[in-house]
Predict the structure.
Amino acid sequence: MTPGALVLAVALSTVAAWSLHGCWASQRIRARVAGAARALGVADADGSVGRPAPVPPTALVAGGAGAAVAALALGPVVLAFCLAAAALSPPLLRRRQRAQALVKRRSQLPGALERLAGALRSGSSLPVALGEAGRATPDPLGPELAALALAADQGQPIAAVLDDWTRRHDEPGTRLAATALVLATVVGATPARAVDGVAATVSERLELGAERRALASQARTSAVVLSAAPVLFAVLLGMSDGAAARFLLDSRAGWACLALGLGLDAFGAWWMARVTRGDQS
């Protein structure tokens, strides 16, 4: 392994990752534009808005060259591990982004419901109040409320609109808010009072969930240490003991030990993350 080859492999991989990052950013923008177009009822004539962005040639060329240089500099085994990590990174990143968007949406719900209740108390109808709350609430919840107001203005029954909202976002706070609005509309009660009650309930649930996550922070740190320690120990052992490295990488029994150990470690990490996760309801 020469330092020059290693630096070249890292540089080419960086170029490929940067190109793919731009491609994914473009794809996220396309998805948002397509969602807004569907919410507003605007047709995409040629389908170019929702079409997935192609992978840039720069990423293909740089990634292939980086993989070739890495295979020569580091060996095929290390390259296989690097490729496996690179293949798993995009799905994990997208899952984390979806989780962050869901957490942000949940945190926006109590404030949006309070704005909705304020508009209802001022004498606005439910569709108008939904539109006002949607304009005052940032992404991702704001466009949802604006789309609900638009659908109600186009003549759809408010119960059907809210029912479709709960099907697309099957989440306790959303279901509770939609149920309260539908019941207040059907029974003839004051919608503002029902929305205020839902906002207080959702806010209390969020506070309890945040408190649980804060209390479990030490346990989550211990889970991370326990999950990373076996992997780091195996890497250090392979670097310091040539016989152990040859056994793990050059024999079937070693590969079986690696596969079994990584599988058990991944299962333990998943289980500890599940146990120490805060309240998501």
Summary: The longest helix spans residues 76-121. Confidence is low (pLDDT under 50) at residues 39-50.
